[in-house]
Amino acid sequence: MNLSVLLSVYNKENPNYLVKSLDSIFSQTQSPVEVILVKDGPLNNELDGIIDLYVSQYPNLKVFPLVTNQGLGKALNEGLKHCSYDIVARMDTDDIAKPDRFEKQLAIFEKYSDIDVVGAWIDEFEDDISEVKSVRKLPELPDDIRQFAKRRNPINHPVVMFRKSAVLAAGGYQHFPLFEDYYLWIRMLMNGAKFYNIQESLLYFRFSPEMFKRRGGWKYMINELHFLQIMRQMHFISFSQFMQNLFVRFSIRLIPNSLRAIIYTKLIR
Fold this sequence. Notes:
Blueprint: E1 4-9, H1 15-25, E2 34-39, H2 45-57, E3 61-65, H3 72-82, E4 87-90, E5 96-97, H4 101-111, E6 117-125, E7 132-136, H5 142-148, E8 161-163, H6 164-169, H7 180-190, E9 195-206, H8 209-214, H9 218-233, H10 239-254, H11 257-268
Parallel strand pairs: 1-2, 1-4, 2-3, 6-9
Antiparallel strand pairs: 4-8, 5-9, 6-7, 6-8
């Protein structure tokens, strides 16, 4: 089964992290036919140098530059246009895929022809992959995933693999700061797409205390309120589910960052 891998990189990303991410892609037990890398605006010399080096070593790495920084959603949509195959694996340029990630996800698509999205668990680490801080676990089966999506994001975006046709049928990625992927999953679920999560970690996800800071405060709350309103308008959640989400989520956004970190790494996971 032919596979495209889709990445987006922008100027502020760490060059060393990019190297580790690309190495993990090109050392898979089942190699992708092509790797599509979108440059989301001009990059610095170090990032450009690394990309040029990998292009010279791997002819299946195809680079598509954007003139200006467009944001993740628009960059991924641009990259999707250049994906030659229907099965597309997402990667972030600071994460590390486990060696058999693609092999195990492709096996699900081969076994279940009606599945459109295949996710997995992820190991969250801060400095070294030998020191995993938490595991982000998600439900396995389509019905359970749909119910879970009413409360929380049902797919770990950095490790997702999906059918390009199903993503485009739901309108593709759309600009929605902080919620581009979650918004896509909701629209796909409403469009009849079926989801599956492999019940093991297939990727090392890099996180830091800064991540928990970004998930707090009034700006995040306003974006989240807008997203919950959209879910309600789409009739994906009821009014009571809207109010419950509002209470739980806003409580987490307003507490100190140290407590929010404990909730994310110890309780929610």
